[in-house]
Amino acid sequence: MKTITTGETLDSILQFCLDNEGYNSLSTLQKELLPDLNKDEITLLIGRIDSAYNKIADVISPESNPLIKANGLTKRFLDDGGYTLREQEDESELEQEKRHKELEYKLAESNIRANEINEKVAKRNKTTTIINIILGLINIGLIIWQSLLIVKS
User: Fold this and answer.
1) Between β-strands 57-60 and 24-25, what pairing exists: parallel, antiparallel or unpaired?
2) 134 alpha-carbon distance from chain centroid
3) The pTM is what?
4) How many independent structural domains does the chain possess?
5) pLDDT in tens, the chain (153 residues)
6) Could you list the residue range(s) of the whole structural domain that residue 54 is in?
7) What CATH number is given to the structural domain containing 21?
């Protein structure tokens, strides 16, 4: 069984308004379109339509019984993918952000490991540098000693 998303539910309300001219009441929507939802849930959905995407439907909101009807923007909005497409785009953006954060975390871990290796190499380099200086000094001493032996002979 397919789960119906909020975007699909909002689009179905807008399509219902296109198919049924005039203002549609909360009770009409509940009876003919959304029998599984209570009035508070439908009121919340209508409020979401009223507050988003450039007033794609006309809503009159008396205290407990909002009325909704399609306007000139409703059909184009649905033809452009409606709430369903926007919901999918939002989910896609969230997935991309999650993937980006995972990659950033892996990069940070990698950088920490690289820094640890660099510290070890730096310690080895310090030791190697000291050994090289000592060997250089010994070589210079040997060269001077050999030069003195050659001069004496």
Assistant:
1) unpaired
2) 57
3) 0.62
4) 1
5) 345 578 999 999 999 999 998 999 999 999 999 999 998 899 989 988 888 767 899 999 866 789 999 998 999 999 999 999 989 998 889 999 999 999 999 999 999 999 999 888 888 888 888 888 999 899 998 888 888 888 877
6) 6-80
7) 1.10.10.10
Tokens read off for 16: 């219902």
* Cβ contact 26:66 at 8 Å: yes
In a domain, 22, yes or no: yes
The token pair at 140 is 């210079």
Dist CA 75 CA 59 (whole Å)? 16
16 within some domain: yes
Please, where are the H alpha helices in the chain? 6-19, 26-32, 39-51, 74-79, 82-152
Question: Whole-angstrom Cα distance, residue 119 to residue 123?
Answer: 6
Of the candidates 17, 18, 10, 1, the one whose C-alpha atom is nearest the C-alpha of residue 81 is: 10
